[in-house]
Amino acid sequence: MNLKKIIIAVAIVATALPTFAQYADDAFLFSGAKNSATARFNGLGGGHTAVGGDLTSLYGNPAGLGMFTKSEFSFTPSFNINNNETSFLGTNTTQSTSHINLNNMGIVFNSPVAKTSNLTKGVLSFNFGIGYQKTNFFKNNLDFNGGITLNNGVGEYLADLAYAENAKPNELQGEVALAAYDNFLINADSKDKTLYYSNTSASTNQMFKLNSKGNQSNVDFALGLNVSNKLYLGTSFSLSSINYRTTNVLNEKGTTPIDNVIYNYNVNLSNYYDTQASGVNFKLGAIFKPVYEFRIGLALETPTWYAIKNDAKQELRLLDNGNVNASDNYPFDYRVSTPLKLNGGLAYFFGKRGFISANINFVDYSSIKVKSSSTAIDTNEPSYVRTIQNSQNILSNNYKEAINYNIGAEFKLIDNLMIRAGYASRGNPYSNVKYSNFKSESYSGGLGYKFGTYYIDGALVVNNSNVISEYSNYTLGRNNEPFGSAKTTTTNISLTFGARF
Prior knowledge:
Layout: H1 3-31, H2 39-43, H3 56-59, E1 72-88, E2 91-112, E3 123-137, E4 140-148, H4 154-163, H5 175-182, E5 186-188, E6 196-198, E7 205-227, E8 231-258, E9 261-291, E10 294-301, E11 305-318, E12 325-337, E13 341-349, E14 354-364, E15 369-371, H6 384-398, E16 401-414, E17 417-426, E18 440-451, E19 454-465, E20 469-471, E21 484-500
Antiparallel strand pairs: 1-2, 1-21, 2-3, 3-7, 4-7, 5-6, 7-8, 8-9, 9-10, 9-11, 10-13, 11-12, 12-15, 13-14, 14-16, 16-17, 17-18, 18-19, 19-21, 20-21
Helix pairs in contact: 1-6, 4-5
């Protein structure tokens, strides 16, 4: 094997790393899900662990269900706006996307315990709740407008892809690699036919679009009980699901020589990912009220154990040749265990005029686990075992424990009108020094109005983060693939409509 081939062989091994990162990044994304809240607690910054008496308890600390003295139903739609600032090959753009969702919908049934003696001691009620909540939203559109590549265009990737097969042109199994060779985007070495190189110009025009959609959701079954109006205990069981689809389309225009004649080419390299998953988790919680004014809350959420099915497809299409549309499919099944989460909270009530609450949350993202018994072949990687092992290494080495906190207050302006405000800060989950200045925080506010047995709450939440995410449609063994970067600010408007009965 000559020196050039040795160098490229090493490069192909390096090329596999971002493939591992696909599963590692998804596992981290799914582990970042947050329990939903009604508009009341959205306006309060999310600090509900020690408060209770709201449908948010159904999705967070189930002990809060023990505080219900009547049955209650509510639902919370929301309007979300993503403002994106992107950069790609020297071109900066801004764009926004918006979407309407159903954040949550739930019902709690109050069941007082029949008592003939002391009505304030012992177990006073068992309250059961069932609800549906969205814990993560994936919808976003990113447009990385054009720029000029330099020796890192699609042809370089296609040459790496063909070389990874270690096969001569007439033996190539991958449809994308074969189409690239047949249409002169890559060539085989004249002496070693298993060695390929790009046949496209060094400087080419590229544009990149990324579309994602879907969500994570839970169906929660919860039970809360009231002990002597002092201690409230709760537990819940959740059926979780993931529906996540992404489409990455990169367009490249350039020139390629064919028989000493220069021709223009116009190609799309597209990657499609369809991820479906189901899982389960459990929650345990307690709220202690030593005096009327003061409450202490604790809650534990077990890992969510997901079984995930990922269908990936890569497609090469020559836009100036409608007959060429080649694709390769890479199905892959694996399992993810998200981190355990611990929540603590304090709340102080100013009589019946309002309260202030604070929460703290601990999550160790390095404890995320990925496993697989799949026999499917991963993109550019003949061993699924190695794929999962390297994904696990990425998770263990690139992430760490994080402490999140929030604080919020509610004040009753008049008998039926409440005003709210809150602040939340997310701890740095990254161990990489690249993100040492990580900052993610949100500001919120809201109003609530009660009329009879009905109520309506509204909230506005603005999330700011200085994290710049990087995206690439393909990877190169020399680690010089073109990257697009994006910074996203999100705004959420939610409304809760509820009734007690």
